[in-house]
Design a protein that fits this description.
The complex is a heterodimer. Chain A has helices spanning about 10-20, 185-195, and strands at about 1-5, 30-35, 50-55, 70, 90, 105-110, 125-130, 145-150, 165, 180, 210. By secondary structure, chain A is α/β, with parallel strands linked by helices. Chain A has a domain at about 95-215. In chain A, β1 (about 1-5), α1 and β2 (about 30-35) form a beta-alpha-beta unit. Chain B is built from 15 helices and 16 strands. Chain B has an eight-stranded parallel beta sheet. Chain B is globular. The chains are: A alpha/beta, B alpha/beta. The interface between A and B is large, with 42 and 33 residues.
Chain lengths: ~230, ~450
């Protein structure tokens, strides 16, 4: 285990050494202590590292992650794992706005709550939130799965494309073109797998599925009031 | 026989309800949908044509054409980047997407720009291997939609351009209509084939310049602080927008006036939102000067740059380089009269064709149709673009030498006068034949 203390090392040094690790590195175990809310911690990683961050971070923690498994023992600021490509990131605390924004792959697990716009423009990422999520989550979500064990705020899935949304609690309101859909066996399978992988003690059958009605896919003047 | 009818005056059409306006009303009434088109503002606005260079005479001496050197090289991104972009000429190619343009057109842009010693720029939809392969210097646009965005391509870029807005539609997003969504475009953008693809109007993971500063930090950390970060803004509030871009940490500010083109947006947006390029440049330069950052943060101006004279005038007013989009497409073959019969079939004429979103471009440039795209030879088209860039550079050099400048960036506002009061006010140079700059104390 290599430990990097952010009160002694600069952010640049931290990211540079983590980004330098290759696919076949033997040094896979890393720990960051004293992040003290720093922004852009552990961004652009591209190797199968096991990274523990002991404390809370600022914006864009784990941004554009590829392959690395990151655990944050604290809360994270806006844009955690934005545009993540692969790997797994677990947040033990809460996440601020735009968690997993535009993420294209991998698994983001938020053990606490996530604020507004969680999964905005998601493009393949899987996001599991153990708590609640804020308004406008999964806005323009293209693909991937957003799983919420708690409640969802206003306008869930507004202007949704093909992302799948699973919510166990209440949905305050659905956004434009987002509708409740039938939960079929293939969805239950996907959902239960994500719940199991994200250490969530829940049964897929307790959830409802939401998706796109696909009525806004091609512009129609008669839908102008929905935009 | 005597004609007892009362005489009529000749028929007069309304200035307010002219033929175009009436056709607009009829079209709107028939379809129920606004008009979407490509390109930039077509209306007449004060522009570089309204400025003249004074040239050298008794008080200034010129440089000898073809003999005395007039340097045209520029360096962009000197503020923070380890590897600024060094260009042979001060004319770059603006961001245009694969999707909006055919693969052949993107390749041609890369070939032409590289042969002329300058950079080209990706667009919405990500970076294609052809484009990277044929572009010596490639700027990677980081757009609100993040279509096709991935860190591997980000690291391959020579610079990153964060697009906040563009001149044709400041405050607006985009729409790539379903008919242009081929299999490859759909795959790159991770959306179903054939549906309209909305490009968001603002970024999904930051709001405002304070956030943007942190976003730039993230991008620099991911790319090792090696490549310059540009911020592209539309011509909305150029003084404040430039100030905030500098504050957010930009290495380069790209400022796009309302004549700058777009692949597709509402005609009403293009013609009625944003400011002319000429009106944008001086407030932007003033912002740079007020912060002591002129020439330290480079300013790239775009929107209606067509000739070497336009280039020289933009640089004289304080830009470090210019960027061309529409002009580059015309150099490739867009709107060429050779396709007139086919333009006629589409209900238009060469020079006016702007339904780029429909994917039926006879010139094979703004289309994803394989047969139409095949009409564009990327090698030949690339050569045409290189020629055009060279001509513009020679023209700008000619003017710079005539003004006694041994580097094109030594051109200055003092070298200019304006033909109209409006242009004098916008460019803040004297009205021709006077020492009057509207809004300024007499000099």
């Amino acid at each position: 285990m290599e430990t990097i203390d952010l009160t002694k090392s600069s952010l640049r040094d931290l990211n540079e050494i983590l980004q330098r690790q290759s696919e076949i590195t033997n040094q896979k175990q890393w720990e960051v202590i004293n992040p003290k809310g720093a922004h852009a911690v552990a961004v652009g990683l591209n190797a199968p590292l096991e990274l523990s961050i002991k404390g809370s971070t600022g914006y864009y923690c784990g941004g554009m992650n590829q392959k690395a498994n990151i655990k944050v023992y604290g809360s994270v600021g806006p844009g955690v794992c934005e545009n993540m490509m692969s790997g797994c990131v677990t947040i033990e605390g809460d996440a601020s706005q735009y968690a997993g924004a535009t993420g294209q792959g991998g698994l983001l697990v938020i053990k606490g709550n996530a604020a507004s716009r969680c999964g905005i423009s998601m493009k393949g990422i899987n996001i599991v939130v153990h708590g609640n999520i804020g308004h406008m989550s999964a806005f323009m979500g293209q693909s991937g799965n957003l799983v919420v064990l708690g409640d969802a705020g206003d306008a869930l899935g507004d202007s949704l494309y093909e992302a799948r949304l699973f919510v166990r609690g209440n949905v305050k309101s659905l956004g434009a073109d987002c509708v409740e859909k039938e939960m079929r066996p293939e969805h239950l399978k996907i959902l239960q797998d994500l719940l199991n992988r994200s250490d969530a003690n829940a049964d897929a059958k307790e959830f409802k599925r939401y998706g796109s009605a696909r009525s806004l896919y091609n512009f129609d003047i008669d839908n102008a009031g929905d935009y | 026989m005597t004609d007892h009818r009362k005489p009529h005056t000749t028929p007069v059409k309304s200035w307010t309800f002219d033929d175009h306006t009436n056709s607009y009303i009829r079209r709107a009434a028939a379809t129920g949908i606004y008009d979407i088109r490509g390109g930039g503002a077509k209306r007449r606005v004060p522009h570089f044509d309204d400025l003249l260079f004074l040239g050298a005479s008794m008080s200034r001496y010129p440089l000898e054409g073809y003999r005395e050197k007039c340097d045209t090289s520029v360096k962009l991104g000197t503020r923070y980047a380890k590897n600024p972009i060094e260009l042979d000429i001060p004319i770059t190619i603006a961001g245009m997407s694969f999707g909006a343009l055919s693969g052949q057109a993107k390749e041609a842009l890369g070939r032409g720009a590289s042969a002329a010693g300058t950079s080209t720029t990706t667009g919405d939809g990500g970076m294609t291997s052809e484009e990277r392969g044929h572009s010596t210097k490639l700027v990677y646009q980081y757009l609100p939609s993040r279509y096709g965005m991935n860190p591997d391509d980000l690291r391959k870029a020579d610079a990153i351009e964060i697009v906040v807005g563009q001149g044709a539609k400041p405050g607006g997003g985009g729409m790539l209509l379903g008919q242009k969504i081929s299999d490859r475009v759909a795959e790159m953008r991770n959306l179903p084939k054939g549906i309209d693809q909305r490009s968001a109007c603002r970024h999904p993971d930051w709001t405002g310049p304070d956030d943007l500063e942190i976003k730039i930090l993230e991008l620099r950390e991911i790319t090792g602080w090696k490549v310059p970060i540009y911020i592209k803004i539309g011509g909305a509030r150029p003084y404040f927008d430039t100030t905030l871009a500098i504050k957010a940490g930009a290495d380069v500010v790209v400022l796009d006036g309302m004549q700058g083109g777009t692949a597709a947006t509402q005609d009403v947006f293009i013609e009625h939102v944003g400011q002319p390029t000429l009106a944008c440049i001086r407030p932007a330069v003033q912002a740079l000067q007020d912060l002591g950052m002129h020439r330290k943060v480079q300013l790239v101006l775009s929107g209606g740059i067509r000739t070497g004279a336009d280039v020289a005038k933009a640089l004289a007013l304080g830009a470090d380089a210019v960027s061309i989009g529409t002009a580059a497409l015309i150099a490739l073959g867009d709107n060429d009269p050779r396709w007139e019969k086919e333009y006629n079939k589409l209900g238009t004429t060469a020079g006016a064709y702007d339904d780029w979103h429909e994917g039926l471009d006879p010139a094979g440039i703004t289309t994803q149709d394989p047969q139409l795209s095949a009409r564009l030879d990327p090698i030949l088209a690339g050569r045409r673009l290189k020629n055009y860039l060279k001509v513009m550079t020679l023209e700008a050099q000619t003017i710079a030498r005539a003004c006694g400048k041994n580097h094109i960036l030594n051109l200055e506002p003092e070298d200019l006068c304006a033909l109209t009061v409006e242009a004098a006010a916008m460019a803040q140079v004297p009205l021709s034949g006077t020492n009057w700059i509207p809004g300024k104390p007499d000099v």
